[in-house]
Design goal:
The chain is mainly α and about 90 residues long. The protein has one domain: lambda repressor-like DNA-binding domains (434 Repressor (Amino-terminal Domain)), CATH 1.10.260. About 75% of the residues lie in helices and about 0% in strands. It has five helices and no strands. Helix 1 (about 5-20) crosses helix 5 (about 65-89) and helix 2 (about 25-30) packs across helix 4 (about 50-60). The longest helix is centred in the C-terminal third of the chain and has 26 residues, at about 65-89. The protein is globular. The N and C termini lie far apart (about 30 Å). About 25% of the residues are buried. The mean pLDDT is about 90.
Length: about 90
Amino acid sequence: MTALVERFGVAVRQLRVSNGWSQGQLAERSDLDRSYVGEIERGRVIASIVTAEKLATALQLDVALLLAHCQQLGERRDAQLINLSAIAR
């Protein structure tokens, strides 16, 4: 899968955990199957925009903020890689 799909899953997991919810609780709140939420969090499936909106709504976010969180994760990862490569020199 692409890095975006993986980051989306990580973002969903982080936000779910920060709310203190299980996958089942997020699934119920977003009207999705628990196993599907797990697949999303592991970056194994590509969530549709409708699914992204359901998850964002359940997490009490605008879908744009959920996607922005994904972008921030990518930027942090890139910065870590740059720092690691500088250390390795």
